[in-house]
Design goal:
The protein is an alpha/beta fold.
Length: 295
């Protein structure tokens, strides 16, 4: 499972101004991220605006990415939702060619009990053709996957190999670390706290800001993996303002501004998301330029 150590990128889905998927921009982004030294890519997660992509668009994007990557890095497909039967159907029909795992976000809106969350993931695990990574992000889903539920799933299903943990709750993180089976991966799903999570045993991050700053992000994470937290802290502090700005008016609108400034792809998002304000965009552009110039 060390293929998921280090830096994963929750990659954005570039769009043309008319809202259609920009495959040239997506190719630029993929090659930029690989050149930036990341370990794996995670397409069609929440950062990829999965909620506004049709089933056919998802299939085309997954296949396109696998074709462009050609095994240069590992791939994790984002397949989740709040209809368990529909998620299972997507998982069973998913073309696994080129992919190494599936990341599945906890159900949003329904607010299931912990037993409901357990049964949801149990059903997916029993049908998944690939290893499964849980995704807990209460700020988006409206419900939390508790430490007890995470650990229970980790012990009960060998193909549930890790969790992208984005609760920001360090008491919960401590409990997962204490009780999880050996080899179960805890991955940061929250850029601002990747460093402290790794200090407690997380094996890396599935990052949003890494879309724009893959080299800086992956360098910081590698230093953490090498237990050189003093050096990692310096890079962490350099990323703080950029990270704050990228999330100030929602993700992925912020990081897409940076990608446009870098000449990778455009900054179009699909409704109900909208582009960030001109004030925030100007700040993101200035911060991005500082990384380009090294100042």
């Amino acid at each position: 499972m060390n293929k998921f150590y280090g830096t994963g990128i929750a990659i954005v889905t570039p769009f043309h101004a008319d809202g259609q998927v920009d495959y040239d921009g997506l190719k630029n982004l993929i090659n930029y991220l690989i050149d930036g030294g990341v370990e794996y890519l995670v397409p069609i997660g929440t950062t990829g605006e999965s909620a506004t992509l049709s089933s056919e668009e998802k299939k085309k994007v997954w296949a396109f990415i696998a074709d462009i990557v050609k095994g240069r890095v590992n791939l994790v497909a984002g397949i989740g939702g709040n209809n368990t039967a529909e998620v299972i159907d997507q998982v069973k029909k998913f073309d696994i060619t080129g992919y190494d795992a599936i990341l599945s976000v906890s159900p949003a809106y329904n607010k299931p009990t912990q037993e409901g969350i357990y049964q949801h993931y149990k059903a997916i695990a029993e049908h998944s053709p690939l290893p499964l990574i849980l995704y807990n992000v209460p700020g988006r889903t409206g419900s939390n996957v508790s430490a007890d539920t995470t650990v229970r799933l980790a012990h009960d299903f060998k193909n549930i190999i890790g969790i992208k943990e984005a609760s920001g709750n360090f008491d919960q993180l401590n409990q997962i670390m204490l009780d999880k089976p050996e080899g179960f991966l805890v991955i940061s799903g929250d850029d601002p706290i990747t460093l402290p999570m790794m200090a407690l045993g997380a094996v890396g991050a599935i990052s949003v800001i890494g879309n724009a700053l893959p080299r800086q992000t992956s360098d910081m994470i590698r230093l953490c993996l090498a237990n050189d937290y003093k050096a990692a802290q310096k890079l962490h502090f350099k990323l703080i303002d950029f990270t704050r700005l990228c999330f100030a008016e929602g993700s992925p609108a912020g990081v897409k501004i940076a990608l446009k400034q870098l000449g990778i792809c455009g900054d179009t998002v699909r409704l109900p998301l909208v582009q960030v304000s001109s004030y925030t965009a100007d700040q993101i552009i200035r911060e991005t330029q500082s990384f380009i110039t090294g100042q």
